[in-house]
């Protein structure tokens, strides 16, 4: 069992645990989709390797047929500059402030995530929290954490030194380096653990879903009480296509 393997090897056993979890995928989905849902503390105890990047990304791939990390890397590289250039044309002081701080040493994915939240007028705190560059899971003030998944950034948002993830108000992953890996893990957690997008950050998450990952269901949504595509996301996608054609 993965939990026994974890006791002996810790997260270093994720490589061996991955094929075991793949073989039991149907059992895992029944467990994760049950009503009432299992608490995250229970999931972490029963299936600890879900909280390793390797097994989390692997299960997302099995579930959605998308290599989440590879796809994000490709799309940020392919479409990231278009988003930056389009945002530079907008008459929005907060967006201009972010772009003014963007330099060659900045993390492009972090900048794009900030710009999307500003464009959709969504509070950064609905998805992210900034902490000290050297903060560990123990250092994070759980009183500040939302119940929904939260991407915790170590250091400056534009130049993060690392990341952690919390769910249900408790840190469950990290700290780890490489911010884009954190975005991939953060996004994957909504699908792997069968969680709804928080209303306050739903447009940003749906944009990532549709624009970067190509997950485009005609009906249904990860946002409560929504069954069709978010019109704000649809509008931005259309504007970006028009901008690309005009450039």
Automatic annotation (TrEMBL):
| The protein's name | Uncharacterized protein LOC113116774
Organism of provenance: Carassius auratus (Goldfish)
Q: What is the lineage of its organism?
A: Eukaryota, Metazoa, Chordata, Craniata, Vertebrata
Q: Which gene encodes it?
A: LOC113116774
């Amino acid at each position: 069992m993965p939990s026994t393997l974890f006791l002996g090897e810790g997260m270093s056993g994720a490589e061996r645990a991955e094929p075991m979890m793949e073989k039991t995928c149907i059992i895992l989905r029944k467990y994760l989709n049950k009503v009432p849902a299992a608490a995250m503390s229970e999931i972490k105890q029963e299936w600890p390797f879900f909280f390793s990047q390797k097994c989390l990304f692997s299960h997302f791939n099995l579930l959605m047929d998308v290599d989440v990390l590879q796809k994000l890397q490709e799309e940020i590289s392919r479409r990231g500059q278009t988003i930056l250039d389009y945002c530079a044309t907008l008459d929005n002081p907060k967006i201009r402030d972010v772009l003014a701080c963007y330099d060659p040493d900045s993390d492009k994915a972090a900048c794009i995530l900030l710009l999307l939240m500003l464009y959709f007028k969504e509070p950064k705190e609905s998805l992210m929290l900034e902490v000290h560059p050297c903060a560990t899971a123990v250092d994070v003030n759980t009183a500040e954490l939302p119940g929904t998944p939260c991407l915790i950034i170590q250091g400056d948002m534009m130049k993060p030194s690392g990341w952690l993830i919390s769910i249900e108000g408790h840190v469950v992953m990290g700290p780890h380096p490489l911010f884009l890996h954190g975005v991939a893990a953060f996004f994957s957690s909504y699908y792997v653990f069968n969680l709804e997008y928080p209303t306050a950050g739903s447009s940003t998450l749906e944009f990532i879903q549709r624009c970067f990952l190509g997950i485009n269901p005609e009906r249904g949504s990860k946002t409560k009480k929504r069954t069709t595509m978010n019109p704000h996301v649809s509008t931005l996608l259309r504007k970006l296509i028009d901008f690309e054609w005009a450039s």
